[in-house]
Design brief:
Layout (H helix, E strand, L loop, with lengths): L27 E3 L3 H27 L7 E6 L2 E6 L1 H29 L5 E5 L4 E5 L4 E3 H22 L5 H17 L1 H11 L6 E4 L5 E4 L4
Antiparallel strand pairs: 1-8, 2-3, 4-5, 6-7, 7-8
Length: 216
């Protein structure tokens, strides 16, 4: 879902915009605050990582983290780590999170009758599921935006308690990646909640989105 911070009504870069619907004011651009979202994503990633490491340790004990070992021999301390034990769950979590996150956006879009486009924007480092060229209702977008965070958390959080290390660790990685990756969705939800009832969004493409507020 492409949304962002209001930045005026310069529409010259997006001639594809449709006529303004009756009863609505002229649209204004919506844009992501890129730096703020990067900082927010980092904070969410760190906080969720610390919380999940503490939870895994509490539930499964220190032996959960057998992929590293510290050996002290006199004045020499040796640190060894089995990268495979970390890399496999992490890569699996990365793939699952990326695919399922966008798929859930798309499923909810489809539930409300929108045509969905899936894609990758390398210049933005983003995967996306979007309803380009369609007026999108504020109330529906609130559900579209939160679907991956709510859905993936509901499925993966119980898996952290499964007494199989690779399952619990993979679930924890998914939760961290999904939570950190949901910063844009959380920002969009916050902005959408501040819009009036009946507001519409229109995504021209992955770069340009516009808000139409009711004029009355």
């Amino acid at each position: 879902m492409t949304t962002s911070e209001a930045s005026g009504s310069d529409l010259t870069r997006a001639p594809e915009l449709p006529p303004t619907p009756d009863g609505y004011a002229d649209p204004y651009e919506f844009r992501y605050p890129t730096v703020g979202l990067l900082v927010g994503s980092s904070v969410l990633g760190i906080v969720s990582s610390v919380a999940l490491v503490a939870l895994l340790t509490l539930v499964h004990g220190p032996e959960m983290f057998t992929f590293y070992e510290v050996t002290v021999d006199g004045e020499t301390t040796t640190f060894a780590m089995d990268l495979t034990a970390i890399a496999v769950p992490f890569l699996a979590a990365l793939v699952v999170t990326t695919v399922v996150h966008e798929l859930l956006h798309g499923v909810v879009f489809r539930f409300y009758g929108y045509d969905v486009t899936y894609g990758v924007a390398p210049s933005m480092g983003a995967f996306y599921a979007a309803a380009f060229g369609q007026f999108q209702r504020r109330a529906e977008l609130l559900r579209v935006g939160l679907a991956p965070l709510v859905g993936i958390t509901a499925v993966c959080f119980p898996l952290v308690f499964v007494p199989v290390p690779i399952v619990a660790l993979t679930a924890a990685f998914v939760l961290v990646l999904n939570t950190a990756g949901a910063i844009g969705d959380l920002y969009a939800t916050w902005r959408l909640r501040g819009l009036p009832e009946g507001a519409l969004l229109y995504d021209v493409d992955i770069r340009y989105s516009y808000v139409y507020e009711p004029s009355a």
